Structure prediction request, 170 residues.
Amino acid sequence: TAGWSVAGVIAANLVARVAELAACRVQQPLPFRGGRAAVLAPMREFLGSLFVYALLVQIFNRVDLLLVGRFAPAETVGHYGAAQNLAQAPGLFAFVLTPILIAAIRRAELAGADREAAGLRLESARLALALWAMAGAVAAGAPRLALLLLGSSFAPSGPILAWLSLAGGG
Prediction:
């Protein structure tokens, strides 16, 4: 945060989102008024909803860090942030694969391939159990992993990483 307050970091994030929106507007100049308004209305509604969704997801993803900052000392916030960065991999994996898996199951259901859909569900349950087991292994070795990857000054991140890896596996 480079010495900024929490309010400063939030303001910087909002400014960054507005800059992203402005950059997108420059890249794809769509008319807001006049022209092809009837054609663009559904897209405008969809993009507005998508923007609100993305903004709320960003806020939701950081609410835990804000709460830790509110109720814990500053060094704990640093330890929590370091552990959170290490524990992001399972969440990213799930974030990428879940929509693909849901689409494949839905495609099989619509095609009438009930056996294929049931097989996909079973394999996804097996994969979830395997990921949970891997998260458990990471949780068991989290103190040493934090020490190895982050150094001795971030050794207190280990127990936090254990809990976050279990949550990410879930």
In short: The mean pLDDT is 80. The helical segments are 6-27, 37-71, 74-86, 88-110, 114-140, 142-150, 157-169.
